[in-house]
Amino acid sequence: MRPPPRRALPALLGCVLLLLAACQAGEQRRERIYRFLDEISFGGPLDPEGRRESRLARWEEPLQVAFLEGETPERIAMVREQLAIFTRLTGVPVAYIEGEQDANVTFAFKADPDFLANREYVPCYVGLRSKGKALRKAKIEISVAEPERVQRCIVHELMHSFGFRYHSGIVRSILSPAHDQETFSEWDELALRILYHPSVEAGMTRQQAAPVFRRLIAELTEAS
């Protein structure tokens, strides 16, 4: 086999360098996604150390959703639309019921401008209860004092309610205080798909989840 002519060597070298740069960029992108998923699952710099959980938790039973206060047809439609996306991404079924007694997810829309939660005033929050590795109750309260914030609050609190208890500013996410993201980003959808993937087990520690997260990020981002 004859070697390539000398004049072709610079072009060949350029192609190799471009390929190496693309591989490096892909690795950096996957690492950013991993850090984002790790922080929203287990806590990061934006969350006080004392509030961080040591194990993954997620829903292992269907959701029974009830509206307790301030619901309107428009607000109910917003919740239904977003929960349909969550069901598609996670496989967790949702039913809507009357009354609080049998509900495990509740929504209350209130006129209060802000709520005091974790020593901060916020336009919405969720109170979560879990038993072992399974989520059991989610009580979501949303201020309607500024109507333009309602949809973002619904999506934000549902992300918390499905198992992502924390925040991260690493990528453009509905859970990022550093970005003006109004609805799901592709990274939020990817996070939901990974948390509810059969390879991920509720109850995993940060160390146990790390290699599974990295493998799924590589597989799912390559597939997309």
For the secondary structure, the number of strands is 7
Tell me the strand percentage band.
15-25%
Order of helices and strands: HEHEEEEEEHHH
In CATH, the homologous superfamily goes by the name: Collagenase (Catalytic Domain)
Termini distance? 39 Å
Strand order of the largest sheet: 2-1-3-7-6
Helical fraction? 40-55%
CATH structural class: Alpha Beta
| C-alpha Rg (nearest Å) | 21 Å
Count of folded domains: 1
Largest sheet: 5 strands, mixed
- CATH fold label: Collagenase (Catalytic Domain)
Chain-wise SSE layout:
Layout: H1 9-42, E1 63-69, H2 73-90, E2 94-96, E3 105-110, E4 115-117, E5 120-122, E6 124-131, E7 134-143, H3 150-161, H4 186-195, H5 206-223
Parallel strand pairs: 1-2, 1-3, 3-7
Antiparallel strand pairs: 4-5, 6-7
Helix pairs in contact: 1-5, 2-3
Word description of this protein:
The chain is α/β, with parallel strands linked by helices and 224 residues long. The chain is 41% helix and 18% strand. The chain has a single domain (49-223), classed as Collagenase (Catalytic Domain) (3-Layer(aba) Sandwich). The strands form two sheets. Strands 2-1-3-7-6 form a five-stranded mixed beta sheet, with helices on one face. The radius of gyration is 21 Å and the shape is globular.
